[in-house]
Amino acid sequence: MATYNAAPLQKLIEYFERLPGIGSKTAQRLAYYVLNLPVSEAKAFANAIIDAKEKIHYCKVCCNFTDDELCPICKSTARDSSVICVVEDPRDVAAFERTQEYNGLYHVLHGTISPLNGVGPNEIYIKELLERIKDDNIKEVIMSTNPTVEGEATAIYISRLLKPMCIKVTRLAYGIPVGGDLEYADEVTLARALEGRSEI
Q: What is d(CA 1, CA 130) in angstroms, rounded to the nearest whole number?
């Protein structure tokens, strides 16, 4: 397909198109926006990307993103260190923190078990979770993987590994979203909503 853009602009558009959820029109809009930035701001933007890529790594305890040896959550003495919330992705940690309802620690798996995609238990951070539980005084592990086939399979797999350690393993209650209509909910969601019901 012929392009009418200058080569550096076209390259910038193509890189934006590689980002998840960015189509060709949005990529073009972002590229033109960057072109219109003052040189100092464009350089600061580029440096922020390089800085994040070079300095961000996994926390040695919970495997969340950090620029230090430990992430701020693992460093905090105000957190409840007897509870670990197991999530698939660092973005899930951010989602929980926004609720301001959870005060325990986290463990980030960086994926789920998915044999169809060639992802087994050794490809995600399960071993690191088990090591933590052996060493620390953990009383409860909250399995907070997504309610997908892979997420459920991962939660069940980990819970079976933890059972012999006499640790309480819980699963997030899934159900009807606030503002949702029952008639549009699928059977699994309704079943989960019933299971997770609480007294009012």
A: 52
Instruction: Give me the pLDDT at residue 182, please.
Output: 65
List % helix, strand, coil for the chain (3-state, nearest 5).
50, 15, 35
CATH of 78-195, one of 3.20.20.140, 1.10.287.1700, 3.40.980.10, 3.40.1360.10: 3.40.1360.10
Q: What is the DSSP letter of 89?
A: S
In 3D space, the residue among 126, 97, 134, 130 whose CA is nearest the CA of residue 110 turns out to be 126
Q: At what angle do helices 7-17 and 24-35 cross, to 10 degrees?
A: 130
Interval 144-167: pLDDT, tens:
998 888 988 999 999 999 988 888
Beta carbons within 8 Å of 176's beta carbon, 6+ residues apart: 182, 185, 189, 190, 193
State pTM to two decimals: 0.82
